[in-house]
Model the fold of this input.
Amino acid sequence: MKSFMDKDFMLYNDTAKHLFHDYAENLPIVDYHCHISPKEIYEDRRYNNIAEVWLGGRNADGTYFGDHYKWRLMRSNGTSEDHVTGSADPFVKFTELAKALEMSIGNPMYHWCNLELKKYFGINEPLTEDNAKEIWDKTTDMLQHDPDLTVRGIIRKSNVAFIGTTDDPVDSLVWHEKLAEVKDLGFKVCPSFRPDKAVNIQRPGYAEYIGQLSKAAGMEIQSAEDVCTALNRRIDFFKAHGCKASDHGLDYVPFEPCTMEEADRVFRKAMSGEALTKKEIDEYQTTVLLSLARKYHKENIVMEIHYSCSRNVNRRMFRLEGPDTGFDMIAKSLCYQQLADFFSALDENNELPKCIVFSLDQSDFDQITTCLGCFQSDEVPGKMQLGAAWWFLDTRDGMEEQMKSLARLGILGNFVGMLTDSRSFLSYTRHDYFRRIACNLIGQWVENGEYPDNEASLKKIVEGISYKNAVRYFGI
Done:
């Protein structure tokens, strides 16, 4: 019987062990998409206890921060909401998480949490209800006193080279400006452009948001064309602060081209509070997304697209808890033709930016990969990327299926690799988890005689997927 989570954890063949330990394990991390706070990095926050890191709490505006992956796990174990996102004592919440984890055999969260305890706190014993108090006491003491366990210390300990945060176009980026002035920070933090609130014309609060965008861009916004102009101005502002990527969280990829006059009519209708048809929503969104993509291409900014998620499906809990609290699910989005038409419209005039496409529906992988293969170019190897297994697919099976799809229908060796997509500063072990799975998959192919045991080629592939491809692709 293998030991639990030893140095060869998830490495099931000798080639995998060699590739991981000799090439992947110690490479720096490029975390090109996450949701951590640049303010907390600048302030070098020190946490009081592990519940603050893992389970979070409420912001001043009443919204939540924390890890909704863990919240879902606790709810699945019958934990009351007061002990998940409510006002219960932090240690009690931590104990409830320990109870849930102990039952979560086969869930990647079990591995992630125990990897974090091992890497950052030197705890090799798996977390259970019985040892929760002992682990609570040790982690609390270390978080409060260990010089390497402030936010910056955790990032450095994790060997992170680059962090791409997620930022709204109206953000002042003041914390990024302050971070840029810090000498010997040891890693780079850049904003990523996330214009969802300007794209989602159908969502409540759109008109109020346009007022905020107008103020941030320093111009009146009276039309869809003005929205595009204002967003372009903010992209310029973001690029001046080092922006390498944009991100778009879409229910599905729309493509309903229309004239600017038609898009302006839809904009005015929304601003007056009138209901929009699906066709009108798609017309406006297509207009804005095409404008943004053209600007991204011009400024060499990567366009990330996430879709096939149905959000806030529990209406009662959405009313109580708000968005991003763990009540989302995988959706079926039949938008493959729209995705191809969107890319083709941009490619017509050489305005297609580098793109990474993520779907939350695993059955989309082959479809997306074959679509992207139609729009590759000599700008950079793997210009059009199938994104890493995302969110509910962020499992060993999901990661393997994503890489197998890319391998059989594209070029796995050009893959830009993993991202945390996380709100927790301890989540960098997800890169370790991914690298082990990638090395095991590649090692399996080699030992099966499906790829030669060519040291130079394997080194190039593994180091590329783990780190070097992302450096090249994002221009870091």
